[in-house]
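Same chain as my last thread, 153 residues:
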Amino acid sequence: MAKMRDAIRMTEAEIAALLDACKSLQVATLDKDGAPHLTTVWFAYQDGVYLFETYGKSQKVVNMRRDPRVAVLAEQGTSYDQLRGVSVQGRAEIVDAGDDLRKLMKVIVARNHKGLADAEVEAIAASMIEKRVVVIVRPGKVISWDHRKLRPG
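reply #2:
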């Protein structure tokens, strides 16, 4: 099994290409009782970290303030031979004020609303930071797979 795992593991460049092709990221946090809380968000991937925005009072933020452990998943494929994805266990850092919040929010807005002028990105980001935060997920353990690598030839 280890050889198959090695055969389907993606390189950093392949992971970046997958993330560029994905619109949504599944995010798992831990509720107060230890149960998983799973949601889907739009995201950005920059400099090896995952970024997403959400309301500052959302359950996932409440959970991450209490316990910064988080898991994220991006995947694609509609048949077994096309499945590819990356699963990350990491730690969340919540950015809720200042220039970093504005800069990171602009990265997320620009990535998920392609084609907007810089002024439009700035205006949307400025509006969003009134009630929203940016979460930075710093990866610890990364697991990836690309079943397309199993094809003969």
